[in-house]
Amino acid sequence: MDHLAPARQRFLNCIKHADPEVPLAAAALALAWEDQGGVDREPWLAHFDTFATNVAPMVNATSNATEQIAALNTYLFDTIGFYGDPSCYRHPDPAHSYLDQVIERRTGLPIMLALIYLETGWRLGLPVHGLALPGHFMVRFRDPAGDHFVDPFSGGSSWSMADCERQIATFYGAVGDELSSIIMAPPGRGAILARILRNLKQTHLARGDSRRALTAVERLLLLDASDPGELRDRGLLRLRTGQLHAAITDLEAYVQRNPAANDISEIKRIAREVITQLVKRN
Fold this sequence. Notes:
Layout lengths: L3 H12 L8 H13 L9 H15 L4 H15 L19 H7 L4 H14 L4 E6 L2 E6 L6 E4 L5 E3 L1 H12 L4 H8 L4 H18 L3 H14 L4 H13 L3 H14 L6 H18 L1
Helix pairs in contact: 1-2, 2-9, 3-4, 3-6, 9-10, 10-11, 11-12, 12-13
């Protein structure tokens, strides 16, 4: 991949900030740049300034949150033409998670359309936050009169709290108020990037692209080096891509740090097989 080192360095520079200060769009563009190679994607940031400049007069003419949301929705989904395509779930395509491609094609996964909504709203000083529901990412618009839950994937449609609770129940069953409030809490910017990377990881795996799946895991570990599942997966993906010594290092570290893990016997078996291969080579 051309420009691998500069793109990875750009991502590192983005995530070294305190979480509220992480430049989300810039970091997402760095992910897209590394995976796709070619020219630097940073110039795509100018699109968000254009979006905010163009919609500002409409937003400034409003008097409440409902009208502000309507103005944003009209501009982003009617004027600009962003839309959610349900077929993206049936046909895994990393372009649905590459921010430059999403801007160009006007469609992507829910989290990417939400990112565009957030970045535009932040430039206008609007109280918008991510809403990381299980299986669906949305936008929460803070309002003293009652928060609004906006779904950019469906043209900015409004969800009720009951709708959000049903989405949670679809994945977790009946949950108490405490767990529900944790799920509904705004995710940090690092958590949003991690979700984008997990989507990319699964997409690359579905397409049989172990090399790019590995790069996704590497960047997930930059966000959280303590994640045992990603450490294990990095080892397994290093194994798939022929990096046997590095794979053993990761798998042995996983075993040492997680002796009670359910898959520990299988990981030990794989590690022994890799060691046997290395011994035979010597």
